Every structure is written in C-alpha cells, then in structure tokens.
Amino acid sequence: MHHLRTTVAILRPITANQKAQGLLQARRLAAGGALSTPEPMRSYTAPVSAEPFLNGTSCNYVEEMYYAWLENPRSVHKSWDIFFRNANSGAPPGAAYHSPPPLVAAAPGLANAQLKGGAHRSVEKLVEDHLAVQSLVRAYQVRGHHIAKLDPLNLNVVGFDEAPVMVGMKQVAFYGLDESDLDQVFRLPTTTFIGGSESALSLRQIIHRLEMAYCQSIGVEFMFINDLEQCQWIRQKFESPGVMQFSLEEKRTLLARMVRSTRFEEFLQRKWSSEKRFGLEGCESLIPALKTIIDKSSMNGVDNIIMGMPHRGRLNVLANVIRKELEQIFCQFDSKLEAADEGSGDVKYHLGMYHRRTNRVSDRNITLSLMANPSHLEAVDPVVQGKTKAEQFYCGDTEGNRVMSILLHGDAAFAGQGVVYETFHLSDLPSYTTHGTIHVVVNNQIGFTTDPRMARSSSYPTDVAKVVNAPIFHVNADDPEAVMYVCNVAAEWRATFHKDVVVDLVCYRRNGHNEMDEPMFTQPLMYKQIKKQKGVMQKYADRLITEGVVSRQDYEEDISNYDQICEEAHARSKDEKILHIKHWLDSPWPGFFKPDGQPKSMSCPSTGLPEDELGHIGKIASSVPLEDFTVHGGLSRILKGREAMVDQRVCDWALGEYMAFGSLLKEGTHVRLSGQDVERGTFSHRHHVLHDQNVDKRTCIPMNHIAPNQAPYTVCNSSLSEYGVLGFELGFAMASPNALVLWEAQFGDFHNTAQCIIDQFISPGQAKWVRQNGIVLLLPHGMEGMGPEHSSARPERFLQMCNEDPDAFPRFSTEEFAVRQLYDCNWIIVNCSTPANYFHVLRRQILLPFRKPLIVFTPKSLLRHPEAKSSFDDMLPGTHFQRVIPDRGPVSDKPEGVRRLVFCTGKVYYDLIRERKDRGMDDTVAITRIEQLSPFPFDQVKEETDRYSNADLVWCQEEHKNQGYYDYVKPRLRTTVNSSRLVWYAGRGPTAAPATGNKAAHLVELQRFLDTAFNLDAFTKQS
User: Fold this and answer.
1) Domain encompassing residue 503
2) Looking at 899-951, which runs of residues are DSSP E strands?
3) Per-residue pLDDT tens for 888-917?
4) Domain count, the chain
C-alpha cells in the first residue's frame, strides 16, 4: 500500500497553487498511479524546519512540510524527506518514520498545539493514524465485496480468494490502530462519501458505514477503474448514507413483479411438469431487475432496447418483460401444433420477439427486441451488439442515447466462452461501439454439473469485464431491493458514461440444468440446502407485510389475479392449431415484403449501369477528392493505373468492386465493409481509405464523394477477431434489408474461428427463425503454392450445408428459374472468375426482392492477373450476373466436334485456358465456368451438356478430391445429364491438409491434373 496516496486526501491545501497541485496528484493516485514530479509552485516558498517531529506539531505545519517536499525534497528537513520517501515506497504504518538525532528546541507555539479531541499526539501518530484510516477505507473499497453477503445459500462458493480481508473492528491493529482508537474522531478523506454532510466521524462509525456500503447484499468491484470521476461517481452511489431508500409504491411494484415472475414458473410447472422449459426458479428477481433497467433507461431517453440471452428464463422474460402474449407461449407446449411457416422452426426457449409498447413508469413508447439464440449461449452477444449499432446508425443516434443493448449471461458461459472477451473488446472501437451495454449475469454458481472451482481460474465469473474497466456490481438475488437499487445504478452509469457495466445476480438453480435433470448426482450438499431454501417472493412478501407496506389479503389477491390471467390464456391457447413462427420474429422489415410475408416480385432487374456512371465512379476511384492531401508514391501509381483502365473501358477486381459499391451508394444503399485490414485490403489492392503522408490521422475515403445525396460508406478495420466481428456484422445486417453489409476474412480459412456464427445463424437462420439476412462473406481462396494455411476457404463445408436436393432437377418456369432457385435456397455460394461477374453479384444482392446470405470465394492472384479483367460492355444496362459462363471460343462454332467438356470454377479456369492454348486444343476441349455453385444452375448446365453431346464430362478443380467442389458438383451433374454419361474428375488427390507447403510440389501437382484434364484418351481407356 503506498501510504502517500492517502496523504493528499487528509491534508488541507494552503494556497491556490498548492491546492491545484494536490488535486492533480490526488487524481493520479486515485487512478492507481504513482506520484509524479510536480511543477514548481512559484508563489510558495517552503519554510525549512530545524526539527519537525516535535510533540504537538500542528496539522498546518505538516501540510507545509508535505507541499514543500512535493516541490523540492531538499527544502524540508531530512527527517521529513525520509518519512515521505519511505511512505511513498510502501512502508507499512509505523515503519516510515526514523527519528534523527535531536538538534534544537521546538519553535515557540508548536510544542503545546492542541489536536482535535483534546489529546496531545505526536505528528507521527497524527499522520500515520490518518494514513491508517485512509488505508482502511481503501481496503473496504477494494476488497469489501469478498466478505459481502452475496450467496443466498451461504455456501461461500462465489470466490476463491483465500487471502484474509483485513477489515472490521477486530482488524484495526493491522493498520497500526487499536481498540482505544475506535472512538477517536478522524477527518474523512475526499475519496469517501460515508460521512454524508459530516466531515469527520469516529473510527467506529467509519467502519460501520463502510460495512453497510460494501459488505451487505451488494459487493462492488470498481477500484481497478483508472478514471477518478468514475470512481467517485460509484463511491457516491454506494457510500452515501441512506441511498437505498424506496417509496411504498416502488416496493409494491417490486412485489407485484416478483409475483408475476414466480407464479409464471409455477404455472408452467403445474401444467407441463415433464417438459423442458429452462425455468427461472432460484433467480426470480431477474424479471424485476430487467424491468428496472428498462424503466430507468426509458426515463433517460432510450426508446429502443435490443436484448440477448441464453435459454434459462427466456419464456419468463418473453412473458413478463417483452410482453409476449401468454397464449402464444403456452401453445408452444402442444406437441400436435403444426407449423404454418417455412422451415424447421426452433424450440420455444430459443425464439426471439419484437414488440413496441408504452412503458408505464416513463409513459414513453419503447421498442423491445429479444434476439433468437441457439444453445451456443454467448454466440448471440456480438449479434446483439451489431444490431444495436445498426439501429443507432439508422436513427442518427451517435451517442447511444436512444438505442441500447442488454446482454444476459450465465456464470459458467460468461467465464468460459471466448466470444465474451471478443465482444467486450469491441465496446470502445469507433466503428463497433454501442456506447455502453448493461450485462446481467444470472450466477447459478454452477455450470450444468460443473463446480465453479473446476470451471474457471478467476474468483468471479465476471472478471473478464475488467479488461474494459467496466464496474461490476455483485448482488444477492434473494434481496430484491438490493437488486433493484443496483439495476438503477447500472442504468444511470450507462446513461452517464456510455460504457459497459455488469450486474452479477448471485442466485441458485432450484432444479437441475433443466427440469428433467437430477442435480443431486453431482451437487448433493448444494441441493440439500436449496430444498430447504424459502422462495424469494415469499421472503420479500413476508418482509413487506411485517413492515405494513402491503396486507396479506392484497398480496394473495395479486397472486390470484395473475393465476387467473394465466388460466384464461391457457384456455385460449388450446384454440391455436397452427404455429406462426413469424409472430416470434425479432427483426421485422416493415414494407419490404407483402402483408403475407412473401416477396413483392419474383424477378430481378438488370444489374448493369450506364457507361457515364461507370466512368464517373471510375474517376472517383482513381482520384484524391481532398486538396493538399499527400498520398504514398506507390499509391499514386495505383491510382494512375486505375485511371488508365477507366480510359480503356476495362476494370480489374478492385475497380469492379468499387463500381458495385459506388453505384449502390449513389442509389441510396448504405454499404458497410468490415474485417481485418479491409481498408487497404489484405493484398494491398483495395485502398478505400487514403492516408495523408504528412499529417497524422488525416484520411480520405473517396467513396464518400461520389454524389451529393449518396448513402454513407462505412469501411472499418476490425480487431483481430472473427467470431465476434462476424457475429457483429450479422447483427448489423439484421436491422435493415436496405444495406449491403460485408465481412471479409483476411484469408478464407479465417472463417473457421467464426464457424459457430456460420453454422448456427447464417446457414440455418431462415429455417429456424424465418429471419432473412443479406450478409456477404468475402473469403479469399486459391492454391498459390504458399502452404496449407491461407490457401483454402474450405468451400466443401459451405456446400455441404446447402439445402438443395442433388437428385432432383428443379421444375421452375424458364422466366423465374434463377430467382425462384435463389428464393428457395438457404444461401448463395459463388466463385467468380471475372470482375464484371463480381460486380453483378454484389449489386444483385440488393436488387433481389428478398435477402439471402452470400458467400463469395474471392481470388488472390487474380487480383492482378492480366487476363482477369472485364470490359465495361459486360457491365452496361441489360447485363446480369452470369451463373454459368459458356466457352465462347472456336468450340462454340462446332460443338459436335468437341471431345471433352471441362467444367470448373474460379481461378483454375486461367490455368486451363493457358494449358489448352499451349497444347493447341482450342477446338476439341470446351471449358465452361460454373460461377454460381449454390443454388446449382441445373438449367444452364443442361444447355451446355446438350450442346456438347459427344463430349466426355470432366470436373476440374485445383483443390484436393476430398475438398473443394467435387462431391457437391458430381451428383448434380449426374442429375442434369443422361445417366449413361459419366462425370470424370481431374484435380489433386485426397489429403488431410488443404495444400502442400512446398512450391515445387505444388507445381508438380498442378501439371499432373492439367495433364489429366487434357489427356483425351485417359477416361476412355478407364471406362
């Protein structure tokens, strides 16, 4: 303990300069820093004492010594210098002072100075006692939560810190005090508010008030925060005497909410005792906690709250917080309920909800959204944050005053899931911040069957929140008033500082992991105590009845009334024969679909653009719109190269992307591109953000200078996270269908650390929750001889999750075939080989009358390949995305003479055409590119196979046989053609790794499968 940290607080400044200097030092010290060397105080001349340590030295004199020492250690007596240096280095009480040899007699007037309380005390005792009191106060502030009464079960399994907490009446000796000091009056330091209007208290009163503030039903962790203003704000909220006072009406409201929370669970238990519902028993105070946060936030101006939570208590939250109709919840328990909507649906405790209603406390309208969430618990965290950010963006809420998020967590998942850490680290990033999230942890003190001692290495499950200096309020969930107070403070904190805050509801789980689980197998002692535990509603009701706040008759009437509401809703639920998942939609898009939820059309207009618009966007892409802006010399050459391409009416990959983004922005569509290094592009090809080479932090985004009334373009480098950031962008895309939201992996295989978001939200999202989403994933992919890492985006994984039947040829009308296929698929997968096709597929994503996720395997070497360029002619009005690009060479003139038809996708096409040219086989081998893999273009592939009816059919890929596209494409090709025509394979053989790490081996493999593809006799002999 650095005792000089407290000296500033207990000594009174003398002059204005000294006061300013002392406050500066106090701020540094309260934030946890060390004393810095003060600037000279010009108006002050320090006295030099011959012997300061004389009995009865006045407090003012001590002050003079301290400030003199701050200015110049040589200006004070050596004994003072030693004392202050020792104290500053952390010497314990009593050890800082070393008596020097006596010099001269005491100065007149000092020897008999009378101290407060009538006692003559040495200056050493005076200073050290005040330092001791300050240390004691700080000990409560830092560690009082360790001995707070947090656990309703009194099992003391909340934390694991075995070190003794040296606070309390019996521990004063640790600070150099004794029992005789308990009635001694001490002036209170400025770092505490326990005195209220009083500036001094006896030590006994100080300890009592500190224990009431920090060691009752609330434990506060905040002293790690390095901001003095924030620390003082929290101290005032919890230390000020009498802060936790509630009116009679507030107490009655709290009890009514406890009744609804408790009786809802009891009703479900009576009606469906053998059903899983993941009830809230043991933490019924969660419902009033959430309603308190919502009430206070609504009063502070918030009108939109987006929530995410795991399954425990979800039905109760839906019923009593979001206000989902009870009959809609109860009908979910009917096993004979038929699904009215498309898709598989989901279990009731995963579903979400969107509802706009009036908040009775604030009398303001408020929109509440509870996001649908799979059983992957914390996976919803970044999704909620992304949707919150989008809602703030679209309503112009730049400070988070109108839109906010609440995240609920389980204790084991909060500590154990890495996405929690990833999400916290987005909290203050400019392009990702939601200006503060209120986290509520339902702390069961157990994870499924795992004891906390085996589940985490930290004292609390909430310790991860400390990485962003979020205050943590632990509270005993069996004390509803303490819960209510903490939630009010949390909402005020978020409104005041716009930073994250954590409310840790320490509770228990009355049943097992679910209602069918037997917890006594693994936690016998805990559950013996739980069986004896009186319910929190009953305990609180008894307390209010004793206090005369409510009568027992009123209380029992509240119970009877709510039970009647549930019974009537249950009777109505029996009339529900059809389940409408759309009633549970958490992100509606009003006006985008027809009233029946169907698209407004089944067609897609041309995605081409007029020539003058292409030229205009191209000029912006090759210029620097700001004056006196110096770009890097290498970038100047890139911009000149773009300008030359525009003059030649061609574009490469980067310019094609620019054309797509720019045109959508001009048409009013917001574009957001996020991911690691996306501003420049991993491969230094994009350069959407220009940096002034002479002015720090001065940047320019030319894309925002395309048209006067264009939509904004957001391009933002993300943190080095995939799971969290992809979830965030998915949530952003949920908020509106009129935005192109893209996430780009630094390399394609980086998506594997975000697999949970892909598997649980993107691929099955519409089937589970009838929730469309137009997010775009850009995954750089290609075998370049650079080793197994960063070569493959693992297309086989995405293709395996397609919902299309490989054995059924779709029977759609010719006019609607392409769009109808897109509507029926769960996502779209493309591997474009030309910039023009990439341009079209991005624009099509917005011009379609519905939304589907789009997976794009983007190139690496093709970014600068001289042949991978497109003419403006391929991007003019009337042009579309080409699902299949047929061979337009000599083979198309005489298709009957073609001996082999090679199907491929992506980059390998350029290897094939080079090899075909070298072999002189331009008129015998046709090469057709399948640009859209899912949904599979059966109709256009059939046209190709019918055209080349005499040709062998070969699928060629650069990926290994057990990877890539072969297992997906082969059965679909067989379905397309006559079963008598075989489909042969040309590519690398099976392997466990995605690619070789040897460049020479890579080239050998490449030449081997090219030889196979063009050996016209190979497959004939095999057959």
Assistant:
1) 256-352+365-584
2) 900-904, 925-930, 932-934
3) 999 999 999 999 999 999 999 999 999 999
4) 4
